[in-house]
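Hi there,

I know you've been waiting on this one. I reran it after we fixed the sequence typo, so this is the corrected version. Both the input and the resulting structure follow.
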Amino acid sequence: MYPDLNSVSARLHERAQHVLPGGNTRHTVFISPYPIYAVSGAGCRVTDADGNTYIDFMSNASATIHGHAHPEIVAALRDQVGKLASVCLPTDLEVRLAEMICERLPGVEQLRFCNSGSEAVMFALKAARAYTGRPKIAKVEGAYHGAYDAAETSMDPTAENWGNAGRPEPVGHTAGTPQNTLADVVVLPFNDVEATRALLNAHAGELAAVLIDPLVSRMSFTPATPEYLRMVREFCDKAGTVLIFDEVFSFRMGYHGAQGEVGVTPDLTALGKVIGGGLPVGAIGGKREFMSVFDHRGGHPKAPHGGTFNGNPLTMVAGIKALELLTREAHQELRRLGDKARKGLNEAFKIAGIDGQARGQSSMISILLSSASFHDYRGYAAAVATARGFQTIHRHLINHGILTLASGGTFLSTPMGDREIDHLTQTFLDALQALKAKRAA
């Protein structure tokens, strides 16, 4: 049973604290009092250092859309690693994966690879500044876009520092974020069309880019309204500002990505996670005129872009195979299972008489112990402030063979079927009933 301070995972965490700050190299996977250490995975299941096997609804924060050790991806990697794993030369593999992505995304004619979604967002912002010659960017309050100072501005502000709802203050996420960095970020109130339009117009001549995720992951997968996206697109066209979609998560929305689902085409797109087949990956793509800032053939480019492992052969072969497997039919099945899971989870809340909701789209689900309706970050923050008890539910799920993110984030993978969804929803109902009994005690 978790936690067990005599477990192998607990002892590994004790060792880790001597060599890794906080005993960890990725704080988002930590749970108290110690994280579960993995040793192997197959399909949608993963086995920990103590021999316990779980259905993995974390899917490495969305990256492993085909689960663990998919036979076709493993075979492609095994073949490639015996030929060429890393090289200071391009390969045909990066050309093929780039072609596949360009074929799928309406807003991508060219792209360049990097090694994470954070890098992809960072280089997209650099490209926008290089293209426009302007310093400022605009981004949505409460949206997560990785670990770049400008992009993480106002990712999780509080009532003490977020300022006026119609004109949010830029708030640093990392201690010591330079004030001049914050001064170059215009923070937008999500889904407030008129307030956002006014802010964008007030800074029109200074804005290099508007950065937006059509389905905001850290806001329980709250979607941008069609009206909001159309207004932002119209502003960017009029002001000469670059519209960037962060689809590191929301690429999962459909075969043509989020942009294909929402019907709005960005100028640049940041990608990561599923396009790497489970290996580290990022990509910046867009129309040729915007991507031209990376073109070095005429000398020093406007936006230099290098990286030792950009387009490395192992990631490329895994990504090619992952996209081959991610067919329209695979997307349809993931959507069906996602709808079934959300319906079952919401029914569990009703049966147990516990306040809560399961949100999200397609294969992305967020479980929240609040039934409050919201469409922006401040509404989300108010809902989260009233949500109590998910740690109890999370531990129950762990002890009954299910892994979700500690935040309630849940991602489906193609090896899953109805059996796994039924197990999730029934176990979740049991967890809610255990929480209800604990509250009544």
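Quick highlight: Residues 110 and 285 are 6 Å apart (CA to CA).

Best,
R. S.
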